[in-house]
C-alpha cells in the first residue's frame, strides 16, 4: 500500500496556505487542517471519554461539508457529543428537540403578518445557524423530518416562494434512537441519504466509565468547555480540504464500491451517486486529518461503513439470516479490486 500511495500523490503544487480570491476564505494547508482538528478533537475528548475514532469521524464530516447522524440507545452520550462538538467551535449553534407535534415551520421558520407594516415578515427558524443539533430526530413525523431536505442539500431554505441562503459552515448534527424504541419513526430514504455518515457511540469501556463518574459527579464538563476554533477558521479548513488530491483510479474505486452495493442480491436499495460523492468528500477530509494532501484506497475502505451502511436497504432474507449492511460492506471491500500500481498517472 505504501508503494501505491506514493503513486497517488498530486503531481502539482497546491495553493494551500495562500490567500484566495477576495471574499473567499483563506485556504489552510493540510498541516494546519491536521493540527486544528487535533485541537478540536482533544477539546471534545475532555467531555467524551474513550471515543477518539467517533470524535475524529465527526470532524471529518464537518470538514467535508456534510451532516452527521448519531444513532444509539439512550444514555450513551449522543447529545453530549453533539453539544461538545458545537461548543468547541465559536459559531452560531441552535438546538431542535424533535417531538411528534413539531411542525416543519418550527424548524425552517415562518412568515408572520406585521400589522404595522401591513406586510409579512419572515421569522427564521433554528436551521439558520452554523451547527444545528437535532435531538432525537426520528421522534418527529416524516413530514417534519423532510423539512431538513432542502437545507441539508442546497444550504438554503425556501418559505412562501422566497429562498434564504444559509451561512457557511452549515452542519446538521442529529441524534436518533434505534427504530425499535418506542415513539420513533423511520427516517425516509431521502433523509438518510443526505447524512454523510452515521456513527454509534456504544458503551464506554470500564476505565472511561469510571472517569465519567468522577468528572460528571460534581459539575457538567460541558459548562467548562471553551471554544478552540471559530467559524472563520473552519471555513479556512474546509477550503484546505477541498484541495486534497484524488487520483482518477481512486475515484473509479469509489464508484466500483457503490456499484457493488447496487448489484448485490442481498440489497434492495444500494448506494446512490450522492453516497459515492459523500464518500469521496469524507475521504479527502480524512486524508487531511491524517496529514496527507492525497487520498488513498485505505481512506475509502475505512469510511465505507460509516458513509454507506445507513443508506442501504437489505433484503428480508438477509435480515432473517442475521446479516447486516456492515457485514455486506465488509465483503464488498474484500471482493472489489483496489487501483493498480499505475493509479497515480494524471
From TrEMBL:
Residues 67-196 form the ATPase AAA-3 domain. It comes from the Bacteria. CDD domains: AAA. Residues 260-327 form the ChlI/MoxR AAA lid domain. Residues 11-24 have a biased composition (Low complexity). Residues 1-27 are annotated as: Disordered. This is MoxR family ATPase. It comes from Jatrophihabitans cynanchi.
